[in-house]
Amino acid sequence: MKIQPGVGYTFDSSSKGFTLDTSDPFPSPDGQKNNHPFKVLAVGPVGSNFRYQIVSGTINNLVPEIDDIISGVEVLLDKTTSGVPTPPTGQLSINTSTKESWIYLRSGAETTSPYAYPDTSVSNAGYPKVISSDVELTDSDTYGYILIAKFDMDSATAPTTGALYQYVSSSLWADRIKLGTTTAKYYYARI
């Protein structure tokens, strides 16, 4: 009897018989099994601040930036050091009265012709960026905002725990439509 390898399994045969191996040939590293683009991960409290990380995703095939509290500069979500992923860490801005923090993906159009959206130059303000806000943000002609997640924290001044509500779970495709003097409209689709 001849056994051939197939989809989802491999085999090993010897004079003592054969065995089928149905384990995952490309297992995910521990902790990565349930990750998805733009998943917010709570890092936890550091002093009187609360920090978070975001799994890398894209908007219109662009990897957004985040203000990395560790290095003090804006870096791409897919940051690596010596070939090893080193996700940047953001810091929550928490509303002092409601104890809420909103995490948005902000992007703007190019300011010169051809006015592409989102701006594709990482050095421009319109390039996609993940931000934390202590107030709910609304779209404007300058920026479109999509709410990635929201934290409800136990404290606004010395947060230690909180509830996380995740709203975006995939990379996105976005479009901006601006007609006359009306405020620009932003549309998003999962990819």
Mean pLDDT: 89
Radius of gyration: 22 Å
What general form does the structure show? extended
Largest sheet: 6 strands, mixed
How much helix is in the residues? under 10%
Strand tally is 15
Q: What's this, in brief?
A:
With 191 residues, the protein is mostly beta strands. The chain is built from no helices and 15 strands.
Overview of the molecule:
The structure is a single chain. The chain has 191 residues and is an all-beta fold. It has one domain (29-190). Helix content is 0%, strand content 41%. The protein is built from no helices and 15 strands. The chain has strands at residues 10-14, 17-21, 40-46, 49-54, 65-68, 73-76, 80-81, 84-85, 90-91, 100-108, 129-133, 143-153, 162-166, 172-177, 185-190. The strands form 5 sheets. A 6-stranded mixed β-sheet has the order 6-5-11-10-12-13, with no helix packed on it. A 3-stranded antiparallel β-sheet has the order 3-4-9, with no helix packed on it. Strand 1 and strand 2 (17-21) form a beta hairpin. The radius of gyration is 22 Å and the shape is extended. The N and C termini lie far apart (45 Å).
Write the layout of secondary structure elements.
Elements: E1 10-14, E2 17-21, E3 40-46, E4 49-54, E5 65-68, E6 73-76, E7 80-81, E8 84-85, E9 90-91, E10 100-108, E11 129-133, E12 143-153, E13 162-166, E14 172-177, E15 185-190
Parallel strand pairs: 5-11
Antiparallel strand pairs: 1-2, 3-4, 4-9, 5-6, 7-8, 10-11, 10-12, 12-13, 14-15
Keywords:
3-stranded antiparallel beta sheet; mainly beta; single chain; 15 strands; 191 residues
